[in-house]
Amino acid sequence: MILMYEITLYLPHKCHDDLKSAITSNLQLLKTHLGGDVVLGDYMSDNDALFFQCGHEDKRQIETPVRLGTLIDIILSQVNDTRAIWRKAGDLSIGHYNLKAREMMLLPVSSGAPISLTEKERDMVQCIYAQEGHEIDRDVLLQEVWGYGEAIETHTLETHIYRLRQKVESDPSSPKWLVTTERGYKLCL
User: Fold this and answer.
1) Domain check: are 9 and 58 in the same one?
2) How many separate domains does the chain show?
């Protein structure tokens, strides 16, 4: 599953073509980072305010003049807030465990001691659970939890998965709850 975003930037009707071009070329650089499209639109207005919209979120006004770097930071902040909607989830029932997100604990449903999680372990569990079929691509998980871009070579994810399996699996070498798939990881409920 690849996360896609469409960013629409609404420019004042009287916007100069050179500003429009500068914004377009710089926002296109974000396309690769965000995995989405940048669309420019214009509107009729008596003021010079800019508006942008990420996906189906409400339009957000940005007062002008604004530095292009500031505009990009504002857009990235909104996209990151939209992407991390899974972080706002509360407690979850995930198969044989109940996740207490705020306390960073997994509580076995039947019996057993509570399992303390690190922040990244909790984030991985929440993020995988939020995906369709509770399955996620490795690159998407790295982007969502660590903010890494595509094609980054790292063993960070594998190390965290290994440590989490040591905590939750009765036989970590043959996992039943957090399994490896062809492209990433899946929670088997």
Assistant:
1) yes
2) 2
pLDDT tens, residue by residue, 6-51: 666 666 666 666 666 776 676 666 665 555 556 666 555 556 666 7
Cis bond upstream, residue 114 (ω within 30): no
| Alpha-helical regions (H) of the chain | 17-34, 68-83, 119-130, 138-141, 156-168
Query: Any idea what the CATH number is for the domain that residue 35 is in?
Result: 3.40.30.10
Same domain, 80 and 112: no
Cα–Cα dist 180/140, whole Å: 14
Which tens digits make up the pLDDT trace of 49-61? 667 666 656 677 7
CA–CA separation, 179 and 54 (whole Å): 33
Do 129 and 42 fall within a single domain? Answer: no
Tell me how far apart the alpha carbons of residues 68 and 13 are, in angstroms, rounded to a whole number: 18
Q: Are the C-beta atoms of residues 160 and 124 closer than 8 Å to each other?
A: yes
Edge-to-edge, what's the strand order for the sheet holding 92-94? 92-94, 97-100, 105-108, 115-116
Between the alpha carbon of residue 10 and those of residues 7, 45, 161, the distances in Å are 10, 11, 42
* Domain span at 19: 5-85
pTM above the 0.85 mark?
no
